[in-house]
Amino acid sequence: MKATFPGQVSSTKSIRLDLRSWTEVENYLQHCKCIILPIGSTEQHGPTGAIGTDALTAQAIALEVGRRTCVLVTPTQSFGMAEHHLGFPGTMSLQPSTLSAVLHDLLLSLARHGFERIFLINGHGGNIATAKAAFAQAYGTALSRQLPVASKIRFKLANWFMSESVFREAKALYGDSEGQHATPSEIALTLHLEPSLLSKQRPLPNPAPSGPIYGPEDFRKRYPDGRMGSDPYLALPKHGENLLDKAASALSKDLSNFIEAL
Amino acid sequence: MKATFPGQVSSTKSIRLDLRSWTEVENYLQHCKCIILPIGSTEQHGPTGAIGTDALTAQAIALEVGRRTCVLVTPTQSFGMAEHHLGFPGTMSLQPSTLSAVLHDLLLSLARHGFERIFLINGHGGNIATAKAAFAQAYGTALSRQLPVASKIRFKLANWFMSESVFREAKALYGDSEGQHATPSEIALTLHLEPSLLSKQRPLPNPAPSGPIYGPEDFRKRYPDGRMGSDPYLALPKHGENLLDKAASALSKDLSNFIEAL
Amino acid sequence: MKATFPGQVSSTKSIRLDLRSWTEVENYLQHCKCIILPIGSTEQHGPTGAIGTDALTAQAIALEVGRRTCVLVTPTQSFGMAEHHLGFPGTMSLQPSTLSAVLHDLLLSLARHGFERIFLINGHGGNIATAKAAFAQAYGTALSRQLPVASKIRFKLANWFMSESVFREAKALYGDSEGQHATPSEIALTLHLEPSLLSKQRPLPNPAPSGPIYGPEDFRKRYPDGRMGSDPYLALPKHGENLLDKAASALSKDLSNFIEAL
Amino acid sequence: MKATFPGQVSSTKSIRLDLRSWTEVENYLQHCKCIILPIGSTEQHGPTGAIGTDALTAQAIALEVGRRTCVLVTPTQSFGMAEHHLGFPGTMSLQPSTLSAVLHDLLLSLARHGFERIFLINGHGGNIATAKAAFAQAYGTALSRQLPVASKIRFKLANWFMSESVFREAKALYGDSEGQHATPSEIALTLHLEPSLLSKQRPLPNPAPSGPIYGPEDFRKRYPDGRMGSDPYLALPKHGENLLDKAASALSKDLSNFIEAL
Amino acid sequence: MKATFPGQVSSTKSIRLDLRSWTEVENYLQHCKCIILPIGSTEQHGPTGAIGTDALTAQAIALEVGRRTCVLVTPTQSFGMAEHHLGFPGTMSLQPSTLSAVLHDLLLSLARHGFERIFLINGHGGNIATAKAAFAQAYGTALSRQLPVASKIRFKLANWFMSESVFREAKALYGDSEGQHATPSEIALTLHLEPSLLSKQRPLPNPAPSGPIYGPEDFRKRYPDGRMGSDPYLALPKHGENLLDKAASALSKDLSNFIEAL
Amino acid sequence: MKATFPGQVSSTKSIRLDLRSWTEVENYLQHCKCIILPIGSTEQHGPTGAIGTDALTAQAIALEVGRRTCVLVTPTQSFGMAEHHLGFPGTMSLQPSTLSAVLHDLLLSLARHGFERIFLINGHGGNIATAKAAFAQAYGTALSRQLPVASKIRFKLANWFMSESVFREAKALYGDSEGQHATPSEIALTLHLEPSLLSKQRPLPNPAPSGPIYGPEDFRKRYPDGRMGSDPYLALPKHGENLLDKAASALSKDLSNFIEAL
Predict the structure, then answer these.
(1) What's the first-to-final CA gap in chain B, in angstroms?
(2) Mean pLDDT over residues A14-31, rounded?
(3) Cβ of A89 and B29 within 8 Å?
């Protein structure tokens, strides 16, 4: 893929697919075959965290990566695989088979237009397995349908919270209180993005320790307030700003490598 | 359902599910069993319209309805059934079977938490059939799973662009140039919401006349620039502001009736 | 499509696909690429109406339209989407996903043989959403399978009870007692087709008023004898004869337009 | 199951489910929990046989069995699994997965109403495998949904053309010319039911010999005119009348055993 | 298909696909386009029979057939459709829809590599219907995907226990005590293959008589210890050795015919 | 779960589910609610590796873990998700949706019998995502079906090749030549299990370096002989013996923790 990798733009607006017209996308495809697809989840994030945390963070990071790299960003798939959180009111979950079908259809839509590299920025650990399964399914369909791009299309999953620099920063800031769910790092990011969330912050009792994830009833019993070993009260908006920058840097680099790779 | 129907709040933030915590939702369910779910689409809207038109409008109207009625609004399902638009770059479509599974899972998630009235605010005609099919499927599953709310849950689809007052206003403003797709009324709403879109507005040649919708290749041949009989150049931001208000009024009333009905 | 649109034949037998051989169909395809597919439902129609009403009427009208236009008529898909009637004994329903698969497979079978225009004559409101969703799915498959007719095939749904002339006649005959389900107009049609049904006719108490449709348990509670605002006792066989003629006229014209359209 | 096994009625009309009202079905269930479901196929039957042969025969036999036993007969599922006949124009086939879903949904609809014994009268060999698979699926669902009849419901498949007396009669009448598809015995039955089909009868060249069935393209190559070793020109209407009687006798006995079995 | 039908090899190892490398398979396909796929089941076989009986026997016979004919044998699909045995601990069943998908995917994998004749050796009656349904589905997909072998690929199901010589031998050895499930013939085969199973053999009370199969709860009530009319205590290892030979002879001949047929 | 965790048995035979009768499983469930399910794959492993590598290794390790812990081991699901290897002859792959359905059905079968802890021993990286997705699906179904164990059942995936001691040993033995696919460590294990495979071992040219995995055509182009950075010629049977012991030790400990955890 010959990719004229561009510099960066001043605003996220210019790289939002939902603000483009189809003729602009047609032009875009003349010089770039890559696109970013953010996926999140709508699920409980502890007694003080926002239910939309995983979608808000994935979207913000995707837009910042898009801004820095001039790569288009699609709308966010805000609902993900959150079956294990269904014991908590407000959680909205797609079954794995449903999320897989969603990603399959979105990837195939883009493949049909000639996109060759699709970069998913993911905000939720529970999406990872299903997304990878969906990739295998989508490669197969692209071949079955004999799409022109079938033999060269590539999908890549980028989980912002697993970037090394983000991981290290979270460790440095919060130590073991980072935990595994409703972590201060993701909460910090939402506080930066949405200051109104600050009003929810309050000291919390010690969380249930991190552990395994089984079914939704087990989850609620094991992690009664939804947190897994985390202390989100440690989160500050400025941490979030910093983490957003670190995540965007790391993923921009990953994306750049993804585009330039032969 | 005993519903303490509230007044209105000053900001859409307080009724966004994604900005709530699960404990706040638990409290909410004590006095209100209703929730709003916006669904849109990500598809071509003519050479000058935004690809995200249907999601942007559904979301804005849903939030305004939520604000006026104090009813929670979930995140927007931004991808809908847009198979017939797949001939135009940038369109991202879920197959009907996929969208049906998405809505099914989201409705069942909410039913599980005890929501009894779910009000979908829809921005895209192509979603209507699938949404109705999904409702029938979801009622059946609620019974099969023997959910406590199974015998009383109700789903309602509200298509903002089909509200009588909106329809009449669009006719008054644009006459026959309203057309059927990429209409000036929906474009106007996006111009109001997102002023940067104004830069795309320009006079367009006469559109292909409105007509039937078959498969994606036929659609592109029949409506070469994506418009169906519409002149989106007529759209002005202030029209959009007005239409948003009219749609929100009409749907708030529908929602109120939906909640209060025995 | 060059269509030699024929006149009419004296008997419905000559246009019934089930009475043709495959070689006759092969010949037929030389001069006409259109076919009619009737779909009905098998569901309660009030305490005095026949469970097969929607299939009997769709089939009779389809055959009459076929006779007048010389267009082949396939057998009737007698089972439709009637989930909301499952609270009444005798109702046999396909889930939306199942009916969608049925229509998908039937449309694709016909497309494979070279039929280019498939005209569904439908006798049941509950089938409409699913049929439309199935169309979108089938267009996609036709393209995925690279069928020769993929880019030109067209599906059209014709609901006989929504034809303007039928609607007006029903209003004139029955006024508000037409109601929404187990209507005197459809019952009249069955009395004309099947005189033995007359023995069931008897005065009924006032029906539950027309209203919304949610799940099957809600439906039974809301409409205890299955009727929605209708008084089927008003139905007379001669009304049915007249309605059949009106419906056949209207749909024959629709079909003719469908065939001749570019 | 205590079954008051009735005598017989004078007309098939009284046992047609589609001519009953739901209240009549409710009464019927007081004394009989059994129902007959005819399934056929819409597929090529050689150059002179009717495409609807398998549905016409299954329906006629089902109605006659119903008449003799006073057991209700549902409408006919006219479309079956005929994938291997898709190389011949006019064939309309449901994929096995689709037919399985259809039967599953119909069986579950009946189970929900309290039917405990469902007797499928089948006119097409190609449906057998799928019907049996659907039974296993439906038993599972009945248990999953915890239907009251789940532990006692029974499904039985009766293939009229495999009844011993029918088989012997066909052998006696046609010897090896009975063949395997488009057989004179089934054609004879259609000639009896629908005299207009007689006009298609004509001497045919020797058929391709009976053999295996693989995919649709192989089938057409192997059996160029659709017949498998059969000479349908031998069929006479009076044979059909006789075969109908023999089939109805055999299946009435099977049905009676099915009902009376503990 | 030009098939150089080979003689036999001294060990089953040389024809086990799982012990071959892909380059060896590539070579094999130069001279033989046929492959054997064994399918079994993991289900109760009475109080003394091994749960793996159907997979152990299918695998052993498949390997012996492969050894004698030099045709490759794939690994065994050990889990089959055993829904009706789910009332007995240890049974592991795939729903018909799942087993159908498994066979579909395996057949398509092999078709993609150029295999043209796939011979399933089956050890379980409950798999038959689903396997046949899967064949029809797979032929369709091969055509939809336009695989090079689509028009010539052939699938064949061989049920070893239904071979005439096996059937006659079982009758001669055990008479009516062969029964229908947990039969002495299949148990004998497992005793030959796995002598440790002898320790389970013990006299058993008279079995429930053979009869119909409905749902899992009915099955357990009807056949309380899992046997259907069989006396597996009659089984001896030497019977098994003999039956294995008879089955392998019969199926080798079937396979040879399958390969050589035009 | 009260688990009487046993010592070890002398032979793998006594813990093979397929060699047990249902009554023995019933007894087993009195004192242990845990079971091991091995899953593998049937796919190319380079020009000299066995196609069955992933199933052979998973099965051997599962049996050894079962032997040491006295926990039952089910038959192996030999076919896994290997879509990306489909470019190489001999690979047999289940689509992710199919493998997910298989695991779902197997887990639910076991759950129905009262198993509460199911430990999957996996031999193939490509199965991981799908297995995890299947777990979420299965927890949901267990609840939907209201199985008695629904709220306490636990599934765990153990990938033997990712055990720390195995990983370290492989690194020590092979350094960078361990690679990512067709690794000397897994090949060594097969050489130990199946000495006949030694005859395939030969020096190979430098492999393509390890890298990403996209679709099957890309995979074949990127890794022309199927290896990803590995030198399987380094593998010796004694390494395999050692690795088997290390894997069995590690997983026995994991299993023991899994059983004993509250």
Answers:
(1) 7
(2) 97
(3) yes
